[in-house]
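Table S2 (text version). Query chain:
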Amino acid sequence: MTTTPAQIATGKRDMEDVVVGRFRSMGATNPATAVDIVPADPVEADRFDRLRAQGVIRGSGGGFFLDESALAELRTQRKGALYGGLGGVAVIGGLLTWLLRRGR
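Corresponding C-alpha coordinate output:
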Protein backbone atom coordinates (compact mmCIF):
# COMPACT_ATOMS: atom_id res chain seq x y z
CA MET A 1 0.00 0.00 0.00
CA THR A 2 1.35 3.40 -0.93
CA THR A 3 0.67 6.74 0.68
CA THR A 4 -0.60 9.48 -1.58
CA PRO A 5 0.40 13.15 -1.28
CA ALA A 6 -3.18 13.94 -0.26
CA GLN A 7 -2.97 11.48 2.64
CA ILE A 8 0.33 12.98 3.76
CA ALA A 9 -1.12 16.50 3.62
CA THR A 10 -4.19 15.37 5.57
CA GLY A 11 -2.01 13.75 8.23
CA LYS A 12 0.09 16.89 8.61
CA ARG A 13 -3.03 19.04 8.91
CA ASP A 14 -4.52 16.62 11.47
CA MET A 15 -1.36 16.78 13.59
CA GLU A 16 -1.30 20.56 13.23
CA ASP A 17 -4.87 20.60 14.57
CA VAL A 18 -3.78 18.41 17.52
CA VAL A 19 -0.97 20.82 18.44
CA VAL A 20 -3.16 23.90 17.97
CA GLY A 21 -5.94 22.24 19.98
CA ARG A 22 -3.61 21.59 22.91
CA PHE A 23 -2.68 25.27 23.12
CA ARG A 24 -6.31 26.36 22.81
CA SER A 25 -7.50 23.88 25.46
CA MET A 26 -4.90 25.23 27.88
CA GLY A 27 -5.86 28.82 27.06
CA ALA A 28 -2.32 29.56 25.84
CA THR A 29 -3.23 32.09 23.16
CA ASN A 30 -1.28 35.14 24.32
CA PRO A 31 2.05 35.88 26.05
CA ALA A 32 0.42 36.22 29.48
CA THR A 33 -1.01 32.69 29.33
CA ALA A 34 2.04 30.95 27.82
CA VAL A 35 2.54 27.36 28.98
CA ASP A 36 5.35 24.84 28.80
CA ILE A 37 4.02 22.12 26.51
CA VAL A 38 6.08 19.03 25.77
CA PRO A 39 5.09 17.26 22.52
CA ALA A 40 3.77 13.73 23.14
CA ASP A 41 5.62 12.00 20.28
CA PRO A 42 8.11 12.66 17.46
CA VAL A 43 5.41 13.46 14.89
CA GLU A 44 3.83 16.02 17.20
CA ALA A 45 7.29 17.41 17.99
CA ASP A 46 7.95 17.87 14.27
CA ARG A 47 4.68 19.74 13.76
CA PHE A 48 5.35 21.84 16.89
CA ASP A 49 8.80 22.77 15.55
CA ARG A 50 7.39 23.68 12.12
CA LEU A 51 4.65 25.84 13.61
CA ARG A 52 7.25 27.50 15.79
CA ALA A 53 9.49 28.19 12.78
CA GLN A 54 6.49 29.67 10.95
CA GLY A 55 5.75 32.04 13.84
CA VAL A 56 2.45 30.40 14.79
CA ILE A 57 3.78 29.18 18.14
CA ARG A 58 5.79 31.81 19.97
CA GLY A 59 7.91 31.72 23.08
CA SER A 60 7.29 33.92 26.07
CA GLY A 61 8.65 33.79 29.62
CA GLY A 62 9.77 30.17 29.58
CA GLY A 63 6.62 28.93 27.84
CA PHE A 64 4.86 28.98 24.52
CA PHE A 65 1.59 30.35 23.19
CA LEU A 66 -0.46 30.07 20.02
CA ASP A 67 -0.61 33.20 17.88
CA GLU A 68 -4.10 32.89 16.38
CA SER A 69 -3.58 35.69 13.86
CA ALA A 70 -0.36 34.08 12.58
CA LEU A 71 -2.20 30.75 12.25
CA ALA A 72 -5.00 32.39 10.25
CA GLU A 73 -2.44 34.10 8.00
CA LEU A 74 -0.55 30.83 7.43
CA ARG A 75 -3.75 29.02 6.45
CA THR A 76 -4.74 31.86 4.12
CA GLN A 77 -1.32 31.69 2.42
CA ARG A 78 -1.68 27.93 1.99
CA LYS A 79 -5.07 28.32 0.33
CA GLY A 80 -3.67 30.98 -2.01
CA ALA A 81 -0.78 28.72 -2.97
CA LEU A 82 -3.14 25.81 -3.57
CA TYR A 83 -5.56 27.77 -5.75
CA GLY A 84 -2.72 29.53 -7.57
CA GLY A 85 -1.10 26.18 -8.28
CA LEU A 86 -4.36 24.73 -9.57
CA GLY A 87 -4.84 27.77 -11.81
CA GLY A 88 -1.36 27.32 -13.21
CA VAL A 89 -2.02 23.66 -13.95
CA ALA A 90 -5.26 24.59 -15.72
CA VAL A 91 -3.46 27.16 -17.89
CA ILE A 92 -0.71 24.70 -18.81
CA GLY A 93 -3.29 22.03 -19.59
CA GLY A 94 -5.16 24.47 -21.81
CA LEU A 95 -1.99 25.43 -23.66
CA LEU A 96 -0.99 21.81 -24.20
CA THR A 97 -4.46 20.97 -25.49
CA TRP A 98 -4.34 23.94 -27.87
CA LEU A 99 -0.86 22.97 -29.12
CA LEU A 100 -1.82 19.34 -29.67
CA ARG A 101 -4.99 20.26 -31.56
CA ARG A 102 -3.16 22.87 -33.60
CA GLY A 103 -0.63 20.32 -34.81
CA ARG A 104 -3.29 18.12 -36.42
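Notes on Table S2: Residues 5-102 form one domain. Strands lie at 57-60, 63-66.
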